[in-house]
Structure prediction request, 458 residues.
Amino acid sequence: MVDQLPNRGLELEMLHEMGFSSIDDLFSDLPEHVRMNEPLPLPPPQSEEEIIADARRLLGANRAMGDVVSFIGAGIYRNYVPSSVFQLVTRGEFLTSYTPYQPEVSQGMLQAMWEFQTLISELVGLPIANLSLYDGSTAAAEALTCVVRVHNRKATQKDTVYISELVPPDRMSVMYNYCQGAGITLKILKHNSDGTLDLASVKDAEGSCGVYVEQPNPLGILDGGLTQIKEIIGENTALIVGIQPVSLGLVEAPGNYGADIVVGEGQPLGSPPTGGGPIYGIFACSNPYLRLMPGRIVGKSIDVDGKEAYCLTLSTREQHIRRHRATSNICTNETLIALMGAMHMSLLGPEGLEHLAIRNMAACTIAKQKLSEIAGISLPHVASSHFNEFVVELPKSAADCLNYLDSVGIIGGFDLSRWYPNHSNWLLVSVTDQTKAAEIELLAAHIAVWSTLKEAVI
Prediction:
């Protein structure tokens, strides 16, 4: 392998200083079967012209969400974002600004951050919000570790948090990754056959550090029973609620029914579904969690001249970089994408957000009605209220249905067997304000045709 090195003399000198005679000696602790002994299978060097041509060829294979009829959501949703958001966020003072450690030269950016926190706080009904986290999953996982830090001393179920069994496996994986190293035990809350939370299982969580549920839940169900959880678990057990922020234009803010921490994926406000990212996580809490919450907080104060001033406050970056003693391993945030959310909320205002939520819910209601009329198709949770999405139970596998719909140019939804393997014929159909009535009619017509086919679509 040494013969393949371009600067053999220098490399040999470096190896000698480390006490090795060859590259093979350097990597001798790696098993033979995991080593690669042949050259990497890379193409020959290309000119700039050739690279650009290749990039255009690859990008040309993509299809924009707006160019196809789509009913996929499952956590990322396509709402209309005003064009002014993109015009504003690409201004230099936002797009190129760096971490505002020097508040005296970052007042504009800090104020914009503070406005985001204020808007989130008002939206979820809690007094404190941070300046965002990486995404909804990391926000949820951080909430679990936060409630253990706050409640563990008083808990009878030490280091224990209860979470809804419907939490999608990708988010569940992040939660387990956070909790296993910290010695936190996760226990599962059961749901009823209609998709609502089994409140009897919530009683088991009394005395634990916290309970995590989602509203709407991952099946799109708006569960009225969640308003009773805080009364069941008591003040010494935290209630964490994961939200879809657009729904709060219509649905009661979790802070108003006892939530101690509210988290969620902020993407539906301000950001289109750009290939799954970039996105931002929402994190808001009540006062007992303020000092032990993750991330950054911007505060508003008065300077020596009596003028309004903004700065990062209440926690320092050093609080989050102390290895096992750190409050959190996240000491940053998604400023630019969070500001897009703030711009979107500001442009909508309370009435505009309500109107957006109504459009989402109306499209969902129409889609439920149309699909329920198809012979052989059922809606397992038809009696529940839904926001954005709902489950359709098919006579055959959801994967086969999606293959057929794809063949006619429709992205038909999400195969729920990817989350819940026992439900191979469950399809999660998602709609937003961007879903047209004609598209719903088209989906219903093609599912009706597919349901009559005897052979699977390859």
Observations:
- Residues 15 and 21 are 6 Å apart (CA to CA).
- The two ends are 46 Å apart (CA to CA).
- The mean pLDDT is 92.
- Residues 2-42 form one domain.
